[in-house]
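We modelled each protein-ligand pair independently. The example shown here corresponds to the flavin-adenine dinucleotide entry; the chain sequence is given first, followed by the ligand as SMILES.
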Amino acid sequence: FYFVMSEGGASVAIVGGGLAGSLAAVLLGKRGYKVDVYEKREDSRSEAFQWEGRSINLALSTRGRKAIRKAGIEDKIVAQCIPMKGRMMHDVSGKLSYMPYGIDDQVVLSAGRRMLNEELMNVAEEHPKVKFHFNTTTKQVNVRETSFVAVDNDGNQSTVKPDVIIGSDGSYSGVRSALQHRKGINYSQTYLPHGYKELTIPPNSDGDFAMFTNALHIWPRGDFMMIALPNPDKTFTVTLFMPWDGENGFNQIKTEQQLMAFFESTFPDSIPLMPNLVKEYFENPVGHLVTIKCDPWYYNNTVIFGDAAHAIVPFYGQGMNASLEDADQFDDLLAACGGDIPSIFPKFFEIRKPAADAISKLSHDNYIEMRSSVASSLFLLRKSVEKLVHRIIPNTFIPLYTMVAFTTIPYHKVIERDHKQTKIFNRCLMLGTVALGIGVILVVPPFRHFVSTLLTDVRLRIRSTL
Ligand SMILES: Cc1cc2nc3c(=O)[nH]c(=O)nc-3n(C[C@H](O)[C@H](O)[C@H](O)COP(=O)(O)OP(=O)(O)OC[C@H]3O[C@@H](n4cnc5c(N)ncnc54)[C@H](O)[C@@H]3O)c2cc1C
């Protein structure tokens, strides 16, 4: 059921028509609000559009899927994605090992950012009161007056005064900057000492995928790593994550020889797969990895969500999922607000802030897991045991990754539950190891003989001392 505003109801300006902003436009449009989306880029559906190539594909999991289901386009999106059933690890010798993400048919989808954004814009525009203004940058956001200046590509300026401003303008949000100028708003911005560079693995000579299709490929190398996600055009988008400086840092690779020597010693099996490695490496920029925290996310009639409120590092593949979940839960609250949108801001913040902080922490922690732990056989063994236990008692024990990627348990509850589970799991593991040890002693003949001789010896000594 959707509450439909009468003509003249609240007008909403969404700043930023990326993933979170476009989904918010769909959901507000469905409820009958007048929505204007201001997007500084060209419409990617137009012929003039030039793709700037930021993280071409994204891992879409349960939370994001639930949100786009609300927009009515889940099946359409899923049909254009590539399912990834697990991680395929490449060691330095090129040996592969595989770890499924979940059990049975649980998959993470490799989704094209552009495709997803365009499908969301298409469905948003089906609502008569939703309008996108492309090539329009917003400036001078005034959260006290609920206004901003919209500037188009020709430099034409107009002052916009909507009833509500939603800032979904990404990590370097201008709406958030305006909020920060108010007293009582906390803010932090932390850069990782690592950056990322995108490269490509084209199709092989048969025109097919050059590696196993249905996996996220990882080359874990301790302090740095490379990953690759499949695209429907049979390419893989490769992302190299490395420190900016120091040994194995981007700044150390200045020549083609240095690049090839580095790849030969660290990712040799990838070299034949990347014929454009040298060109792409030196042409493509290195991106920053930033974590943003802000508190609260609203003031007066202005609210922020998505990366604008909580940019996180990408190592859990959850930034977009969390941003879409923001829009989804914002919409749940709208259902009961009776048209007074700002009245839901405090509740929205109360629900989403702990979740955002939790996924921020989990994403940091997962970088260590991805670049290092997955290379350890003990770690992989433990993950297999966890999956086995989950299969036996699926509702009692849910592995951490499964909770994050395949459930909608709030992220902070995921952490709480994982702490409890890990404690019990470790105790059981210890007891199991002790029981196994005793079993071995009692059953295997040489051990049994040793123990019985030892016991006889002890008995005799005790007797002789009495
Ligand atoms: C390398 C990398 C890999 C990632 N991989 C994943 C993944 O696998 N899975 C996942 O869930 N997440 C992933 N993410 C995170 C994901 O990209 C973001 O969380 C997601 O894009 C956030 O969506 P958003 O709509 O909040 O912001 P954005 O997608 O950044 O959209 C913001 C929009 O606002 C517009 N804008 C900005 N300023 C203005 C202005 N002044 N006026 C008008 N418009 C403006 C921008 O043009 C843009 O369209 C990854 C991120 C990176 C960097």
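The pocket of flavin-adenine dinucleotide is lined by residues 15-21, 38-41, 55, 58-59, 137-138, 168-170, 174, 196, 239, 287, 306-308, 314, 317-321, 323 (CB under 6 Å).
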